[in-house]
Write a structure and sequence with these properties.
Recoverin, domain 1, 3% strand, mainly alpha, 65% helix
Length: 135
């Protein structure tokens, strides 16, 4: 009887692990699909890259993506800006509102454009989103 209990426990543990792996993979797949859709929305001319102009044209979409708690203000943990840069933009209230955000779009784009070609490809854009999410 004890042997059967061990087998059952082992099977349950294996099933739970499988379900966890499947759920993690599904979440990653959903996030990847969402990122691809965001990129497509920013890529107005559908040429496979986001130019500075396209980025600026859609900067409020970017703001709402960064604003994880949807309070219409960005805190330091919702951006990938260095602490001193964030502080200089945010001012006394410690938050970046929509007006202040519009002033930093150029800097964010340039920082994300790691190959300095004036465009964000899918990889650079994905890295930007990953940095934002992991903060």
């Amino acid at each position: 009887m004890a042997a059967k209990a061990r087998v059952v426990c082992t099977l349950i543990a294996a099933l739970a692990m499988h379900m966890h792996i499947a759920a993690t993979a599904a979440a990653a797949s959903v996030e990847s699909a969402r990122d691809a859709r965001i990129f497509e929305l920013l890529d107005d001319d559908q040429d496979g890259s986001v130019s500075m102009m396209e980025f600026k044209n859609n900067q409020m979409l970017v703001f709402y993506i960064l604003d994880r708690n949807k309070d219409l203000a960005l805190t330091a943990d919702e951006t990938f800006l260095p602490t001193d840069v964030f502080a200089s933009i945010a001012g006394a209230d410690g938050k970046i509102d929509t007006i202040e955000f519009l002033d930093i779009v150029d800097s964010a784009f340039k920082q994300a454009d790691t190959n300095h070609d004036g465009l964000l490809d899918r990889q650079e854009f994905g890295a930007l989103l990953k940095r934002v999410r992991n903060r």
